[in-house]
Amino acid sequence: MKSLCKVMIVDDEMLVRQGIKHLMNWEQAGFRIVGEAANGLEALDLVEEVKPHIILTDIVMPIMDGEKFVKIVKERHPKMEVIVLSSFSEFEYVRSTFQSGVADYILKPKLEAEYLLSILNKTAARIAELQETALEEPAEERYIEQAAEKLIAGYEAELPPGVLNSVLPGDSYVLIGMDLKHIAVQEVRSSLIQMVETMISQIADTASIHLNMKDQALYILNMNSEIWNSLIMDVRGGIGQLPPEQKSGVHMVMTERFTDFYQLGAVYRNQFLSLARYSFYMPDKHFIYVGDLPDLPQVTADLDMGELTEQLKRKQFQKGFAGFLEHIHLKSMDYRTDIFEFKAYLGNFIFNVTNTLGKLKYDTERLEQSKYEFFRRIDEAAYARDAIQRIVDFIHEAEQVIGETNTAVNPNMAMLLSYIQEHYREPITLTEVAKQFHFNPSYLSSYFSAHNNEGFSEYLNKIRVQKAKELLTSTEESISEISAQVGYSDQSYFTKVFKKLTGLSPSTYRREQFAKED
User: Taking every annotated instance into account, which residue ranges of this chain make up the domain Response regulatory (predicted)?
Assistant: First the structure.
């Protein structure tokens, strides 16, 4: 039995892609949608991964248009067939693609199921490997995949009798997966998907279905309700066992369980997508499940930009900048905040500061030129802390314009680092340091991580371990005594931290250093 004809869709309009995907029962007609992309550049990587027989591509797209995309595909894969989608006004572009060897074109106003299928069948007839044997029937799993993808896209779906219980016999379902939008490199994406599949395959007493979703590794897990608690522990444990280098960019999302398969679309839209967005504010949280979400901060009203403007007019620059930084750090702790609104709020700050300094007769030419780059970098930020760092960078530039350097940022950080280095022997905590500098502890934690590229605890441990290494090689004091001298009351915990940062236990480190001296 021959394979289904593999089709890939390339169009910058998501609604067009969704419309094509749900225009007909593809597998019943002998075809399978194996991937979709929003522009030619993105599609080139996907072509290498899914190896489609036929590509349906738009002409006018951002980044890389269809004309250039078709030319590259036909150069690399002359046997792949390409069908171009276009409007009446784009026919000159379509004509040029025929020189590259496209199979046919379809005017978008004629994009109806029967007409599209006739073009696809005519094109598929030109592909030798598809003409060998009779058409294979779709497996039961594919029926479920198709129904699930329709439900997620907002369409109605119906399964043949008995299929659901045959493939997914448990009484409960859960959606689990990962958003891949922030992962640009296709090889990294493939590696993450493989990692997710391996982890899911190791979860006992569950059945799973992989859904073909753009920019997501998404799976339906099916199980009986009595294993729900152990399932959560298994997923959490699986992620916890990943090596640190593999956790970068990993945010596994899991919804609450549900019992009706046909609720899948609502669960995806109301739970999965919301949880996936939360990772923007929680870059170090690798498992995002509603039962594990951190407590929300007290509601913080948006800072009055008019008040900020007045502070700038009165040349209270340090007060204005520092106040805004504290405010956005607190705001970033509310993971429910709309990401677009958060980024727009940061952009509004840049616009207001630049505009106000211009009215105060400062030379803002440099700021006017660079503000659009700041807007772009904020828009592209994968995490809130990255977007906030762009604001810190902007404030540095603004301080240079007004002739006051390091007023709002560096002195605070310099004093913090100096304080830690002076008091590392003491049992200091983030809360105590925050009180010392009159900061909100939550703000200080976010501020420290954003500006110092590591958290408060990580920095404190690094300082303590460095001091311990000096004592281990310069004194004959016991490990217990050194542990106490560098601020650890628990020797076993000191040993654990030391080994984590150096790869060696304190005693092994001491022996190796003495051996080198001999």
Answer: 6-123
Tokens of 165: 């219980």
- Check if the beta carbon of residue 313 is closer than 8 Å to that of residue 355: no
Quote the CA–CA distance of 358 and 472 in Å, as a whole number: 57
In which residue are the tokens 């030391």 written? 498
| Residue-wise burial string across 185-201, b where 16 or more C-beta atoms lie within 10 A, e elsewhere | eeeebeebbebbeebbe
Give 325-369 as a 3 state SS string.
HHHHHHHCCCCCCCHHHHHHHHHHHHHHHHHHHHHCCCCCHHHHH
Other beta carbons within 10 angstroms of residue 373's beta carbon come to 12
Output b/e per residue, 273-311; b: 16+ Cβ within 10 A: bebbbbbbbbbebbbbbeeeeeeeeeeeeebebeebbeb
Cβ 239 vs Cβ 252: under 8 Å: yes
Q: What is the DSSP letter of 291?
A: G
Q: Sheet holding 252-254: strands in order across? A: 207-211, 216-223, 172-179, 252-254, 287-289
Instruction: Give the global pTM.
Output: 0.62
- C-alpha to C-alpha distance for 440 and 433, rounded to whole angstroms: 10
pLDDT in tens, 247-287: 777 889 999 999 999 999 999 999 999 999 999 998 888 88
Residue pair 86/58 in contact by the 8 Å Cβ criterion: yes
Residues in the chain: 518
Count of beta carbons in the 10 Å neighbourhood of residue 25? 12
